[in-house]
Amino acid sequence: MSELTDLSISELQAGFRRGDFTPADALRALESRIAAVDPSIDAYLSRDFETALAAAEKSDINLPLGGVPIGIKDAINVLGESCTCSSKMLAGFKSPYDATVIAKLRTAGAIPYGRLNMDEFAMGSSTENSAYKKTRNPWDTTRIPGGSSGGSAASVAAREAFATLGSDTGGSIRQPAALCGVVGLKPSYGRVSRYGLVAFASSLDQIGPIARTTRDCASLLNVISGKDSHDSTSLDLPAEDFTAKLGGDLKGVKLGVPKEYFVDGMNPSVRSQVEAAIQRCKELGAEIIEVSLPHTSYAVGVYYIIATAEASANLARFDGVRYGHRAKNPRDLLDHYMRSREEGFGSEVKRRIILGTYVLSSGYYDAYYLRAQKVRTLIRQDFTNAFEKVDALICPTSPDAAFKIGERVDDPLRMYLADIFTIATNLAGICGISVPCGFVEEGGSKLPVGLQFLGKALDETRLLGIADAYETASGFSSQRPPNL
Amino acid sequence: MSSPNLDVRDVARLARIELTEEEATTFQSQLGRVLEYVEQLKTLDVSNVEPTAHANPVFNVLREDVSHPGLTREAALANAPHSANNLVVVTKVIE
To answer: Is B69 inside any structural domain?
Structure first.
């Protein structure tokens, strides 16, 4: 038998039910693995082993995720645990309630275990914007794991988490999943309740799973999705089993290749891996059709207006009064606000709040924010038109493999352009998944490449079926980082 | 086209963020480049396009006007940086 921590969730649950090992055994094995590898990965901010062990010992393995430990991005509230969003602003904050996804995990028998590092307030693409630590890519520890859910992806890749929850505002689940060689799903907007997720950009944020297989992502989505009275944007939909189309094939499936997603300037080795994956889908019976999403090149610009505008409003709550950092000995209320926010927020967060404040300010609102909302309509229409011709889109997740730590920190615009293939998904509210599709060699390291499938809004069951068929045939998801 | 109208110090004050000299200088040039990049949106004709505020527009989500259990006073105050007598203490507003 392979190591317990190498198992997928479905294999782990099969082991529980056969009586090969117990949830407590699994948690102990996981904790030893974390102790062994996390000093070189730094995915975890904190863990509460005793509480999790107590939950494991009394867990019911017959529940949908009975006894399965799930790592949690540090932006999602778990009752009694810290929730810092990797920011000094929330140092010492203890969550007074469970996010809806956490309550749903508990009802399904899962055990939330560990707080995972991220870019501060989910703003970033490399997890370098954490105020606490730099998470490293398990495939090459001199490189970034992607972001903002870098800890959530790196821990799954390093076999120090079975599966995790992340959040995706412009690619923050799919891009780190791609760069770490694991599977990451961004559900359609409204599929999963955002209650208890610290808000970044409310019209774009979605919580989703990161796991080693598409099947595990589908099982997690079964548990965390659904209407929630605490999130008025969550949708009331008929119950659906997201595993229903797993184990199928690609015969007759129409896959659209958006020509704008194969741009000059993308890493040619990444491009050839993705093209090989598209060819593989064709061999598996898919019909490959070229489509056009003509407004793709505007997506990054639209995103950095809309997301920063929403962030500037959402992060206004950090005023140093009810919770969060408070500056010492303020002269007056203005000084209290200004110094509390200066001391509590890191550079990227300040930069984005300032940009968002500017694009919403009197005299610039129409030129920036309103115009961006209109271009957002055009981007949505591009997808609507494409999905009239095809069942799903197939494209790269990221134009690059994992880059070196420190390489892009001084160039925000270049960092923003790393999200070029994931951002439009959030603007349109559709669903997307990244699965491993091969490797590139860079500086003597073997680095994973992600293949992205995009589905129309609320079409997750079909999207997961397509991703699973490719993943099973390609076999890349079973590969693990060497030397760990 | 640059955005000469962005004065980082002024906007930071609107956003209630104090900036160091160094931050102000760096952000001014970095955000200038970002604004230059988003100028490309101005090349599109959007005169007949409706804005999208939300991917799945939902309207008038209502519930019965009845109270629901919320946080206890103790839980609500537990994260306050400064509290006394079961109240949050705020910085003086009135002279």
So the answer is: no
Give chain B's domain count: 1
| Shortest distance, CA B80 to any CA of chain A (angstroms) | 4
How far is A335 from chain B, CA to nearest CA, in Å? 8
**B37 lies in which domain range?**
8-43
Show the domains of chain A with their CATH numbers: 4-252 (3.90.1300.10)
- Residue B12 falls inside a structural domain: yes
In the β-sheet with A44-46, what is the strand arrangement from edge to edge? A44-46, A111-116, A69-73, A163-168, A206-211, A183-186, A431-442, A445-455, A392-396, A254-258, A287-291
CA dist., res. B68 & res. B70, Å (int): 6
ipTM of the complex: 0.95
Q: Tell me which residue of A181, A179, A145, A185 sits closest to A165, measured CA to CA.
A: A185
H helix count then E strand count, chain A: 15, 11
Side chain identity at residue A319, one-letter code: D
Q: For residue B74, is it within any domain?
A: no
DSSP-based three-state secondary structure for A50 = helix
What would the pLDDT profile of A42-60 be if each residue is shown by its tens digit?
999 999 999 999 999 999 9
Token pair, residue A126, equals 């490399």
By annotation, the residues of A acting in catalysis are 73, 148, 172
Residue among B17, B49, B75 minimizing CB distance to A354? B17
Can you tell me which residue has the tokens 């790269």? Answer: A396
> SS3 of A457, please?
coil
Contact between B63 and A229 under an 8 Å Cβ cutoff? The reply is yes
- What six digits make up the tokens of A364? 């610039």
Q: What is the 3-state secondary structure (H, E, C) of A99-152?
A: CHHHHHHHHCCCEEEEEECCCHHHCCCCCCCCCCCCCCECCECCECCCCCCHHH
Quote the tokens at residue A197: 């997720």
Which residue in chain A has the smallest CA separation from B71?
A96
Residue A66 CA from chain centroid, whole number:
23
Query: Residue B50 domain-assigned?
Result: no
Q: What digits encode the pLDDT tens for the residues A157-176?
A: 999 999 999 999 999 999 99
